[in-house]
Amino acid sequence: MLESASVYVRGYPSTVTEVDLRRHFQGCGAISRIDLRADVGNGPFAYVDFDTVAAGKEAVVFKHNSFLHDGRLFVSYTENRMPPPLPPPAARSSDDDTNVVYVQQNPRHTTIDDFRAHFADCGTIEHISMRQPDAVFIEFADVAAAREAVRRKDGSMMQESRIRVRMSHKAKGRTTPPPPSSLPSPPPMVTIMQSPPTETPTVAGDPRSPWLFSYEKTLTTPSYLAGIPSDLEADLRQTTSWYIEDLGKKFNLPLIAVVTAQTYMNRFYMLHAFSTHDRFLVGAAALFLSAKTNECVIKLTDVAEKSLGLVDGGKSPTAGDLDLVKTKLRQYEVVLLNTLSYDVVVPQPFLALAALVDRAALEVDLPRSTILVVAEVFLKDAVAGTLALQLTMDELAAGALYLSCLAHSLDGWLRETTLFAHVHIDTVSHLLLGLYPKSRLPAKLQAAAK
């Protein structure tokens, strides 16, 4: 078949969502549309439509036989660019005579009000039951409204996901969802595979964390919606992270406190725009709050003085400037706490990395410090931006260690070891390499970045 900008994908489990596929193929090129389908005989499949033929070729070359949620993908060209959605069945069974619909493949961080607004034009909504994000039942005033919801909203985009809407098979009038044991498992939100846990800490890096965002969410941030280009926002995040690191050094704060502050800052700007909140005040307040969280004693006056010194090039601040900045820092500490919903304990990928490096050092003929120093470079750059908001700490640690070993020409060991079996390491390492222009990478890693 001739090369095409549209590819056919199958082989993934039924729990995979459009967001999962978009994340898996995002490194190949810009994606214009994904159409998820299901076939009784062959299981789920999808058409992924890229903007260019070159992107479609890269998907076939590099993603065929790759793994997605324990499934090995089959990827091939297709001549049909995004067939139209399947029409609704002509005949309806008695099970369809219900005023309740069941909504699947929902975006994360949605509320009952979001669903009410999305389905408001279908008819009068009597009740919405939302026990978990992927088990949402909407009860309409009549059967006609429920059928209209299926007709109009099945396959529609809700935030970053294309949702599925079906007539519910619940007993008519019952508004509570069936027992959890009878519902399908919610789809994994990141690339973690279903395998035994590793020795790295996992509680704070739980993939169900509300602070893990899809790739699309990290592109459509409040700053972007306020008119700040994505590349400029990435620079603002990175330089603000460096500012937090430099400020932390002035107080000799441990790495865990600095990483916590950088995470606070990056989470804050997923809900606020850089154009409306001074990034240096946010960064300094994040470090001040992080020091308290990690039981490090620093004075507010010292934070104000040293932060002003960094911003103003070392000039001595006036008493008026100090008082003003101290007042602002107190205010932003409260704003940060409210934005974070007082969720101040964050994942620590450097702890996860240290545990993985200890295990790797037992298997390779390289000093532990040699492996760790390169891995920490990758990890620091990931924490400075939004990639740390897309991947769990175990994924970040595994990807950083994998690239360090690859840079040290440990190819043979990488092919044989099971140390990275808990993540889709090809996907994670590709995302990490995407942080850098290809020309900046050593030759060994340039080949991996193809």
Describe it:
- With 450 residues, this protein is α+β, with helices and mostly antiparallel strands.
- The protein folds into 4 domains: 6-77, Alpha-Beta Plaits, CATH 3.30.70; 94-182, Alpha-Beta Plaits (2-Layer Sandwich), CATH 3.30.70; 215-339, Cyclin-like (Cyclin A, domain 1); 349-448, Cyclin A, domain 1 (Orthogonal Bundle), CATH 1.10.472.
- It is built from 17 helices and 12 strands.
- It has helices at residues 18-25, 53-63, 112-118, 143-153, 215-219, 222-225, 230-250, 255-268, 279-293, 300-311, 319-339, 349-361, 368-383, 393-407, 411-416, 425-433, 443-448, and strands at 6-10, 31-39, 43-50, 67-68, 71-72, 74-77, 100-104, 125-132, 135-140, 157-158, 161-162, 164-167.
- The strands form 4 sheets. It has a 4-stranded antiparallel beta sheet with strand order 2-3-1-6, with helices on one face. Strands 8-9-7-12 form a 4-stranded antiparallel beta sheet, with helices on one face.
- Helix 9 packs across helix 11 (319-339), helix 12 packs across helix 14 and helix 13 (368-383) packs across helix 14.
- InterPro entries: Cyclin-like_sf, Cyclin/Ssn8, Cyclin_N, Nucleotide-bd_a/b_plait_sf, RBD_domain_sf, RRM_dom.
